[in-house]
Amino acid sequence: MYNFFNSVRQYVWLNGLLYLIFGLFFLFDPRQTLSAFIWLFAAFFVIFGIINLIASLRVHSQTGIYDVGLSIGIFQLILAVLILVFAKPLLAFIPIITGVTLIILGISEIIDAFSRRQFINVVPLPMIIYGIILILIGIVLTFNPFTTVLVLLQFFGAILIVNAIMDFIGMWRWK
Are the C-beta atoms of 131 and 109 separated by less than 8 Å? Predict the structure, then answer.
């Protein structure tokens, strides 16, 4: 039983250390960290695409038949190129869609607030303020998408750092 808890403690230590390292990278240099993750993700597909191509060519040299590894390898290499080319534009497109959605929701909230004025005990001001806040956040997301992604990555980095600190505190309390 002691060995089990000791291995869990080591895992928590490593987990907390990785959270801390990645959190610091995301917090202080989100642009470079994002680029590094995109390159690592693409490299993953390149490596496995090459492995599948080599394995398929070996099977072909032994049997004279191409197996499914050839098409998977080619697909993985194409996917790696697509990731390198389209990852940042796609990441920038997500806040635009979210921003437009928030603008529409904000307008809807304001219209809904004015339509509820006919009821005596309903105060429309909180819903109008909420609608205006949604519209403002939507405008920021729509017209500044890549900076928004970087700020979200910094926020993610801060969360990772807090999680690492909580892991270290939990590990210290387990001793």
Answer: yes
Q: How does DSSP assign 23-67, residue by residue?
A: HHHHHH-HHHHHHHHHHHHHHHHHHHHHHHHHHHHHHHHHHS---
C-alpha–C-alpha distance, residues 43 and 55, integer Å: 18
E-only strand ranges, the chain: none
Q: Which residue has the tokens 């808890």?
A: 5
Which tokens is 77 given? 């290499």
Compute the distance between CA of residue 134 and CA of residue 113 in angstroms, rounded to an integer.
Answer: 14
For tokens 């590894």, name the residue.
69
pTM of the entire predicted model: 0.64
- Which residue's structure tokens are 């750092």? 161
- Per-residue pLDDT tens for 113-163? 888 767 667 677 888 899 999 999 999 888 888 788 888 889 889 998 999
**CA–CA separation, 158 vs 154, rounded Å?**
6
Digit-coded pLDDT (tens) for 20-69: 998 999 899 888 988 898 999 999 999 999 999 999 999 889 888 888 88
DSSP class of residue 144?
S
DSSP string, 42-53: HHHHHHHHHHHH
